[in-house]
Every structure is written in C-alpha cells, then in structure tokens.
Recover the amino acids of this structure.
C-alpha cells in the first residue's frame, strides 16, 4: 500500500526535514484561517495558501509519510512502520525530539492520508513498550 516502510531509526533520521515541512503546514493552516476571515477579499490568498498546503502534504507523502490532524488540533506525522506482521505506524508530533510511539492499525486498515488517526474510538497513540523501539547503533 505504501511505497516505503520505515524503521524507527530511519524515521528519526528524517525528522529535521519533516519538522520543517510540518512547521510550514501549520503556518499555512493559520494563514488559511485568517484569509477566510476577510471573506471575498481573502479568497485569492486562501486559494494560494490552499495550493501551498496541498503541495506540502504531497511533499510529505513523497517522502513516504503523512500528516494527520483533526478538528484544528495540532497534528502528527505517521510513518508506515516495518514492525512485525500487523500494519503499524510510528507517530511523531511537533516538539518531540524523536519518534516515541507506535500505532497498530485497526484490522490492518490505515486511515487515509490527510485523515486523523486519532478519533473518539481510537485515542491519540500512546507510548509503547521499549521492546518495539530498539535504538539503532549510532553511525
């Protein structure tokens, strides 16, 4: 389904770039909210920001991961994980130093890119036991 599966080490190595892209996504989302406040006058700016927003999401998907947010809450990035038989995702939120959580997909069906992984039935991913997250040797 995904073109790439990440190890925890690989996901952590991508975080500097991912972090900058997510910062841009969040800044663009704030701009889109402000542009909507201007009504008809803000439409051209909103369309421009909307295109930039889509381009940033595509950039993440090209890297092999995606950004998920729900109801205006701070989002997180999910990396398809190479962890056992079940489909799973390493999760990272802006502000975290490294990937610390692993989310197992319910019934092997992942949320669609751009949709939130956190819902009322599936709360925000919680930290996992260390047996899933082994530190890779430093190069």
């Amino acid at each position: 389904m995904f073109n790439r599966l990440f190890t925890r080490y690989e996901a952590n190595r991508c975080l500097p770039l991912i972090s900058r892209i997510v910062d841009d996504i969040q800044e663009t989302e704030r701009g889109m909210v402000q542009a909507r406040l201007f009504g008809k006058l803000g439409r051209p700016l909103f369309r421009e920001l909307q295109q930039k927003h889509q381009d940033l999401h595509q950039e993440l998907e090209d890297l092999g991961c995606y950004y998920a947010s729900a109801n205006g809450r701070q989002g997180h990035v999910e990396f398809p994980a190479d962890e056992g038989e079940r489909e799973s995702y390493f999760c990272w939120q802006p502000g975290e130093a490294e990937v610390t959580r692993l989310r197992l997909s319910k019934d092997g069906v992942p949320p669609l890119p751009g949709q939130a992984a956190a819902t009322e039935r599936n709360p925000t991913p919680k930290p996992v036991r260390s047996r899933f997250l082994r530190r890779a040797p430093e190069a």
The beta strands are 66-68, 76-81, 88-92, 101-104.
